[in-house]
Each structure stands twice: as structure tokens, then as C-alpha cells.
Amino acid sequence: MRQPRPGAASVAAIVVVLMTARVAAGPERVAVTLIPHTGSPVVITAELAATPRARQQGLMWRRELAAGTGMLFDFGAPQPVAMWMQETYVALDMLFIADDGRIVDIRADRRPLSTTLEESASAVRYVLEINAGEAARGGLRPGDTASLRALP
Fold first, then answer.
1. Looking at residue 1, what is its pLDDT?
2. Strand 69-79 relative to strand 42-49, pairing
3. Which candidate, 53, 68, 96, 151, has a CA 20 to 30 Å from the CA of 42?
4. CA 46 to CA 37: how far, in whole Å?
5. Cα(22)–Cα(64) distance, integer angstroms
6. Are 47 and 128 in contact (CB under 8 A)?
7. Inter-residue contact 76 to 52 (CB < 8 Å)
8. Contact present, 125 and 74 (Cβ < 8 Å)
9. How far apart are the C-alpha atoms of 4 and 100, rounded to whole Å?
10. Architecture of domain 27-150
11. What pLDDT is recorded for position 109?
């Protein structure tokens, strides 16, 4: 016996359930290990912003960012990038990272709500945003490296 095809209401209900499950799972996270020339590695648990929409929103409207956490913007391929702090209420350090994991630039203590563009000095694949001061406390500087690992 042939089963009837689901109606539009059934399909819509399935889509809502799937979307709710994805939202409940939360954003994809990665462990970013920052390795300074001197000192101990710094591990950051970062939300991954790999889609245009996620990169556009970034950390906007966040009022706090827990220590040891951040957001990793993945642009998919090396390219010049520009970041800003519009609607971001937390002071941040921005680490511009090349495709090979080399930190090419650090913009420390970026002022909340600023619309000043922070442009990469060269093509980068990633930008890691962390709490202001964390890069200095970790002894990080351009030339240090970052390694990425997906988290479950």
C-alpha cells in the first residue's frame, strides 16, 4: 500500500524541529592553541564564524565574554580583511592569522562600539577575537603561531 505524501504542514513541522535542534546545539566551537615564542601555550575555546552571516554578526550585542573564550572568523581562503567593533560592547584583542597558522598582526584593546576599520596588513584566513589584554598576558606577538582543533 502506498503511503500518502506529507502535507505542507507536516513538512513545516519537521523543518521547525530540525532548526530548533540546530539552535539548541549551539554554534560550532574550535580549540585555538596560541603558541608564543616564549612562555606557555594559551588555549582559547572559540565559537566559529565561518558563514557570511555569522562573520557579519560576530560578537555584536554581547555584553560579556568569558575568560579563555572568543570567536574565530574563518574566511575560507587568505584575503585582505577588515574588522570593526560596531554594536560590540566588550573590548577585544584581534589576532590576524595566516592560512599556515602564523599570527601576522595583533590589534590590542579595541574600543567597544567603534566603527573604525581594523584592516589586515596582509592576506589572512582567520581573525581571532578574544578579551582585551589576553594577548599581552599570554606573551603573544606577531610571528607566533596558532593551531586549530574542532571541538565536539
1. 46
2. parallel
3. 53
4. 22
5. 23
6. no
7. no
8. yes
9. 53
10. Sandwich (2.60)
11. 93
- Locus of grid cell 574566511: 75
Residue 57 three-state SS: helix
- What is the DSSP track for 21-43? HHHHH-S-EEEEEEE-SSS--EE
pLDDT, tens digit, 9 for 90 and up, residues 6-29: 444 433 333 333 333 344 456 799
- pTM of the predicted model as reported, rounded to 2 decimal places: 0.81
Q: Write down the mean pLDDT value for the chain.
A: 84
Helix (H, G, I), strand (E, B) or coil at 71: strand
Euclidean distance between CA atoms 137 and 151, whole angstroms: 24
Strand partners, 49: 73
Return the DSSP state at 14.
H
CA separation, residue 40 to residues 37, 84, 97, 104, 140 (Å): 9, 29, 19, 19, 10
